[in-house]
Amino acid sequence: MKITDITAYPLSYPLPEGKNVALGIGRTVKRDAVLVRVRTAGGLTGWGESHHGRCPGAIAHIVNTTLRQLATGMDASDVVGVWQVIHQMQLASHGMGAGCAMAMSGLDMALWDIRAQAAGWPLYKLLGGRAKGIPAYAGGISLGYQAPEALAEEAEGYVKNGVSAVKLRIGDTVRKDIARIAAVRKRCGEAAAIMTDANARYSIEDARAAVPAFDELDVYWLEEPFSPFDEHAYATARAFGRTAFAAGENHYTRFEFARLLQGGYIRMLQPDLSKVGGITEGLRVAAMGGAQKLSVHPHTSASGVNMAATIHFMAAIDNPGYFEADMAEHNAFRAELTGSPYELRPDGTVWPLEKPGLGLTVDESLLARFPLIEGPGYVK
Question: How many other C-beta atoms are found inside a 10 Å radius of the C-beta of residue 39?
Answer without folding.
Answer: 19
